[in-house]
Write the structure tokens for this entry.
Amino acid sequence: MGKFLDQFSSKLAELTPTEKQVVYYIDNHIDDAKTHSLTESAKVNNVSTTTIVRMSHKLGLEGFSELKYILKTIENQHVMLGDNPVERYKEEFVSAFETIQKTELEKLSEKIVNAKRVIVVGVGLSKMMAEYFSKLLMQTNKQTHYTYESHMIDLLPNMVEPNDLVFFISSSGETKTLLQAAEKLSYKVVDTAAITNASDSTLGKMVKTSLSMTVGRVKFAGYDITARSTLMLLIDLLFESYLKRSVK
């Protein structure tokens, strides 16, 4: 098995023969597959685009965009068996700190100071990060709230005002719910930002300012155990930078 098939081997039984065909193609042609659009992927496999999307969902992914993210980062994923987790985390954090964009950190802290209200959005495991960030800001009397419910996220375009700053918190930067919200907000006169674990994420490209630490995606026994603590570190750094600016 290749790296892609190894990662999703536990899901193969749930796939139809046609969907398995796509998985086997990707496993044998990762370099080509990572450059294909949804339409191109369907064409080369002689299947419909719906088949590709349905296969992605059965693999436990949000959709094709997250599949593309995994293919782009698959070479950086770690095999966990036999690894010393303490040493691995130490190496990852040292490496990740070197990827922080300090100019973006300063830019975002200034935007928080100037924003009338800060809205923080996070779903899944990032929900706790969104709540943490929002409550940090509340301590300084900054008008803020966080949201994680899908129906409230859908209503964001109707809720925001021109002087608001909307933050998206996402490890992969490929979560479908957040991408849809970010796209809708791109048509509004409102400032948007993202905190992610991937500097080249789709979400990071859709918002006006993005802050990230590049962290390798890690899977073990079918579970995503990519470090989310790096998101917490970015939030802490951003809050400290904002605090220093706000008290000047």
Remarks:
- Residues 78-82 have pLDDT under 50 and may be disordered.
